[in-house]
Amino acid sequence: MRSRVDRVTRSAPSDRESVAMEGVRPEVVTEVPRRVLAVYAHPDDADVSCGGALATWASAGCTVELLVCTRGDKGSAVALDDIEQLVERRDGEVAEAARRLGITAVRRLGLDDGSVENDLPLREAIVRVVRAVQPDVVVCPDPTAVFFGEHYVNHHDHRAVGWAALDAVAPAASSPLYFPGSGGAWSVSTLYLSGSLDANVVVDVSEQIEQKAKAVLCHESQLGDAGDWLGVAVRERAEELGRQAGVAFAESFRRVQLGPPPP
Known about the structure:
This protein has one domain: Rossmann fold, CATH 3.40.50. Helix content is 39%, strand content 19%. The chain contains 9 helices and 10 strands.
């Protein structure tokens, strides 16, 4: 079984793959959203994929919330006798990581790892959260990214959550005719897709790269004997992206502008 540490180091495309604008300096996002909702599959996914951006926005006054779709019950490379103990531990890890990033609330759907499907119940659950949080920005995995190089296939849960989040945002959450019992309609203005092979913007995370590294290292149940090298890997990846963009450290995204930002 592939270790979760290996997933952390491979779950995003390489730096050169993740910004698909050869010879062109990527646009550096300077706007700070009013409210952000990050939607991810597993307890550690957001920290690895967009922790720097979330911390950067939070430090600038943005309200950031996180929706974790699974329990993290299969996030171990070895068989365990007490799965519930692992789940409880992972709940504590994501809470501490969120605190370090400045995330104000963590919501959980409690699905089992490996069982996530882009179906009506999941889309309705995400719509309900979107309408409750009322974000102008939603951050989620890019579900079109499947193969990263020659040695990694993107996790099914990542892709399923990415598709479900996209379908929940456009058009479901914005239309009162979709899931009318799940809150009032709300239109998200911007999507940021992480782990994309078609990234078109970066966020300067230079002031928060250390917080991102610390947040990733909160997930001790996933790290084994990884030690400090994982923090180094996080910094090196962000440094390479930053070099392309003319900043110290960066994270890349595929930005989709669905409508004007709120006033």
